[in-house]
Amino acid sequence: MTGLLVEALIKSIVLLLVLLTATAYLTLLERRLLAKFQLRFGPNRAGPLGLLQPLADGLKLLFKESFVPAQVDPIIYWLAPSISMVTALFVYAVIPFGPSIQLFGRSIPLVLADVNVGILVVLATSSIGVYGIILGGWSASNKFSLLGSLRSSAQLISYELTLGLGVIAVVLLAGSLSMVQIVEAQRDLWFVFRFPYGTVAFMLFLIAGVAETNRAPFDLPEAEQELVAGYQTEYGGFKFAMFYIGEYMSVITISALATTLFLGGWYGPPVIGRWLPGIVWVILKIFAGVFWFVWLRATFPRVRHDQLMTLGWKVLLPVGLVNVLLAAVVLALRSR
Amino acid sequence: MTAYLPIFIHLLLAVLLTAALLGAHALLGGRRPTVAKDEPYESGVWPIGSARERIPIRYYLIAMLFILFDIEAVFLYPWAVAFRDLGVVGLVEMLVFLGVLFVGFVYAWQRRALEWE
Question: Which of A260, A283, B7, B37 is the most buried (most CB within 10 A)?
Fold first, then answer.
């Protein structure tokens, strides 16, 4: 029992540190990549290649005035960014990063907790994350904040359905809600290559994932031209940074989930799969997902709110439902 | 139950980390309020009216539809896990369930509940 406790503590601390570092450097990666896309240099002054930039940004935001406007609801005002950050950190409790490794004569699984409802924990946590945005926009007593949080919550709940339907197709294929077993089920063939239902589910998941993380082209909650900064308008200093940490961490989360659910987790491609250890494949796939997110932002203009809602309810939702049914019927026919 | 122990530890540490960062920010940042800073930001103009306005009914509609479809998704999860054991009977039952739901979806579409103008 004590051994289990210590192991969980160590793994959790390492995970939190890695996550915070990865999120900080994701901001640098994004700025540098966007600069490359736009033929600029990007931040390259702080340290070699600008590698100290995230540190400088973090310290600056930490030392900024901890400002609370007079009209806000103070408790909720502090609570909202905390919810965003805690939920973003918490999801990783069930995401597997590799098969078990041997360390100090013990077999250590590279997942904090392989519970049999893993994927439900992920979905439930991401639902709670919406509260951060709603409460943040509401507590600020600012019209831009309120409108931003309303739009944002409408967007998040609409696309959560699509996200869920994409995941249900995976659960059908794997026959389990445990993240580790879902990866094990992809040993021979990644779910993304189960044409057509696996591929369609993957695309639905990615589109909904971009909307869930409030990223371009679905970054309406913070559409500068109309809403100033949306739900973050009245936030400054590190409270503002925590919303951003939440957002950037969920970019990594969606990439990690896509890796686990569709791209075979720690299993590499067929021929060269054994060349690298499992955890390297996981990191490479997550990195590819993150790059895709940045690429998307550099390429597409923002959609309008009515286009967004129409796409979510009239296109993605029916497609998702039909896709689940198709997968079920094909699986039923195969098993007979 | 021990499978969930690491999850609770992780949650506890995440909360502690967030609280520590917020506390450090409050201590290091300090507060120097002024009259202008305390006003809600409206692009530099004095704010007009309160932000506690009435909200368009569309948002309630979307919320209601979301609850309906999300509960349907919740029913799909256990079905998807047990799909191989349920066999054809389970498939037919789910087809009936989704058929009813689909009729409701078409009705909502026809009543222009999904329009956003």
Answer: A260
